[in-house]
Amino acid sequence: QVQLVESGGGLVQAGGSLRLSCAASARTFRGYAMGWFRQAPGKEREFVAAISSWSGSTTSYADSVKGRFTISRDNAKNTVYLQMNSLEAEDTAVYYCAADKAFGYGSTWVPGSWGQGTQVTISS
Questions:
Q1: Of 2, 52, 54, 85, which cross-links 99 as Cys (Cβ 3.0–4.6 Å)?
Q2: What is the predicted pLDDT for the residue at 26?
Q3: How are the residues of the chain apportioned to helix, strand and coil, as percentages rounded to the nearest 5?
């Protein structure tokens, strides 16, 4: 199990940017694939982005955020980031950081460790 703490959420106007951070407790952080998910009010949680372990050479994005969001990791800081640009009202959700030893993506990936979430609200 990995302890995950998200930060960086907030209220921003449509078209703006935010960067989410997720700090992980694991001393072997670099060995974990990391991901971001989100859950909007009244909707199921959905996959947003994922990055592979170690160098993070492999990434995956949901079609809805491709070209606007970027996931990255800093193993020296035990932190994964989600840079969100060109934000839209539809991006409003609670964003969750997740970790797993196995890389995955999409609706079938269910990581073993989850953070508490951070609220992102986009005003139109």
A1: 2
A2: 79
A3: 5, 50, 45
